[in-house]
Amino acid sequence: MMIYRMKWSIILMDAFISNCYHIVPYILLETFRHACDISGSASIFSKITNESVVKMKHSKKIMVCSLTILCMILNACGSEGNVLEENNLEVTEATSAVEISDAVDGSNDSSNNDDSEDTSSDTWKSAIDNLPEDFIFGMDASSVLVEEKSGVKYYGFDGQEQDVFKTLSEAGINYIRLRVWNDPYDENGNGYGGGNNDVPTAIELGKRATEYGMKVCIDFHYSDFWADPKRQHAPKAWEDMDVDEKSSALYEFTKDSLTQLLDAGVDVGMIQIGNEINNGMSGETKFENVVTLLKAGSSAIREVSAEYGKDIDIVVHYTRITAKADVLDLVSKLCDNDLDFDMIGMSYYPFWDGGMDNMSRVLELIQERYGKKAFLAETSYAYTTEDGDGAGNSFNAGDEVAGYEASVEGQATILHDICEYVNSVGGLGIFYWEGTWIPVGPASQDNSSIWEEFGSGWASSYAADYDPEDAAVYYGGCSWDNQALFDFEGHPLESLKVFDYMRNGSDN
Fold this sequence. Notes:
Blueprint: H1 2-20, H2 26-39, H3 42-50, H4 58-76, H5 82-85, H6 97-106, E1 136-140, H7 144-149, H8 164-170, E2 175-180, H9 199-211, E3 215-220, H10 243-263, E4 268-273, H11 287-308, E5 313-318, H12 324-336, E6 343-347, H13 356-370, E7 373-379, H14 408-424, E8 429-432, H15 448-454, H16 471-474, H17 498-504
Helix pairs in contact: 1-2, 1-3, 1-4, 1-6, 2-3, 4-6, 10-11, 12-13, 13-14
């Protein structure tokens, strides 16, 4: 037992020495080497010196060292390492400081407040150091067309009406993300809502984005309506197919859709094969079946991109970033099953998905362990808690992240901080989710007829048969209007300028 405790203490000192070795005298290192020899754990010292974590952020170093000191005290009192056991970390001679640090991360993953701090009014107007020229400042603008059909007008910073894609480009947005559903209509041609985002809609919006110099990310849901961890319905046309038949259909749909987009002149730079597919895709829940579908989509993209001589990156999209181990396991399985893909996109909503330390660590590990580029495929924050259309909001009073109030300045500041964290670990950038989805009418009036006719609410009643558990019960307006980067009347918020400021600063 005494030998075990000595081993355990020395292993924990991995974290301390790895973080503080530059101030630990040589004689102290030699003392620990001798202790390792006495305890029969000589390999531990090698592990310590070979797996330094000096690249960790300062806040993480403090957490690791604090845990180390706490555990040493508990060990001296006879504890057997309960702190680490609570994080499901088996302490062995192979345990490294990196693993101990990740255990610390996991204990805080669900907190919105673990790395928040007081924010300055000038912070969001400063340029981010060492920001690559190709860092993605992206915007999901999938709802624009149905918004305009519903009577919405968008304005530039000068107060004059203009194409919203021009305004986005002027604000520093360089990438537009557009979701695509296979057949978002009922048997009578009535749209399911949420943008009615079929391929023709993506082509029309994609051409406008391209006109203003922005690249386009196509987000294939491989469903007729919303796909996320809660639902991954197969398209109606695929419902009776087995996985091989579905795979062939997915290949053909991907190939045909991408061909149409490129023929129309849309500058497609990346494609998501699925949307938030942690729990399945297109009605398939077994991982091996999901991989079969993903391979079909990937193959179609590679063939079309080669035919057109165009470099198009393939993205796999996951969410629930707080479940770090689960996400990394999914990426590992993709690699083990030889899926041909380039990037992992993660959803990260700071009011739901914990702190930025964990978010950035997940992106960092995806790149380090699997050699895949990583970025945030979705993020957002509210500038007000008011409801613009009377349909209720996803973000309400009480959802604020500590240090970031629901205000224009708070929205801009948290966006700046998120991008700074992403850039600090080599992430490719971010896409802001639906920053153009604003009310089609005031909260004081009944807007249901507009939502139903044009599909500008999150769901229409026509989607009830296809999505009986959600659309049939909760269909209605937009729950995201208070997280847009335009006000309820279509004028750009000052927070939209944060993208330009992050690149150029406010003095240029």
